[in-house]
Automatic annotation (TrEMBL):
Listed name of the protein: SAM-dependent methyltransferase
Domain of life: Bacteria
Record keywords, A-Z: Methyltransferase, Transferase
Biological process, per Gene Ontology: methylation
Keyword Transferase: yes
PANTHER family: TRANS-ACONITATE 2-METHYLTRANSFERASE, TRANS-ACONITATE 2-METHYLTRANSFERASE-RELATED
A Pfam family matched in the record: Methyltransf_25
Every Methyltransferase domain range: 54-143
GO molecular function: methyltransferase activity
Amino acid sequence: MKQTPIELEQITATTLGHYNAVAESFREGTRDHDVSQNIDALLRHIQGEAPFDILDFGCGPGRDLQTFTRMGHKAVGLDGSEKLAQLAREDSGCEVWQQDFLKLDLPAERFDGVFANAALFHVPRQELPRVLKQLWGALKPGGVLFSSNPRGENQEGWNGPRYGSYHDLAAWQQLLIEAGFVELEHYYRPAGLPREQQPWLASVWRKCQ
C-alpha cells in the first residue's frame, strides 16, 4: 500500500528524532566499528587519480569522514539528523550537509564516489528508485556507489523508533540496475562467518551513461 506524504513525514520525523536523542551515545557506540573492508571496496573501484571527491551519505557522527580525510580524499558528509550532522562537523572538520533523505538537494556530477554505509535501508521502498536516481545524478560519469544494508526478505517497517526497509540480493540488484547502475561486486558481512551470521549485504556499483 502506497505511503502518503503525511506517513512519509512521520517516518522521517520519528527516525530522525531517535537519532537526535541518542546522538552522543551513537557516536560512542559506533566509534570503533571497523568498516575498512567497505571503504576499500569503494575506493578500489573508483577510476582516475586520487584524491577523490567522496559523499558520505548518512555520515552519522563522522567516523568515516575522518578516515577518508586521513587518506587524503575530499569528503563531504550528509545526514538527516541535526545532532549527528553537528557532531560530524565538529569531529571531522569536513563540510556536512543536513538533508532529509527524502528531500535531497544534491549537486550534479560532483562526486567520484558515494559511500552509503548503513544508511539507505532507512529509505522506504517506494521512495528508493527516486533517491537512487538522485545519487546517480550526483556522481561523475563512471562514478561508484557503495552501499551496505541489513539484509532481509523484502519487508519494511518499524524496528523500535527507527523505520527500515530490508532487501534480499535480487531485489536490491533490480533497484540499482533500474536506477542506471552496473554491479561491480557484492559480499556479506562480517567476513568469514556462516551466511546466517552475516546480517549485512554490501554492494558496489558503477554509474553508467
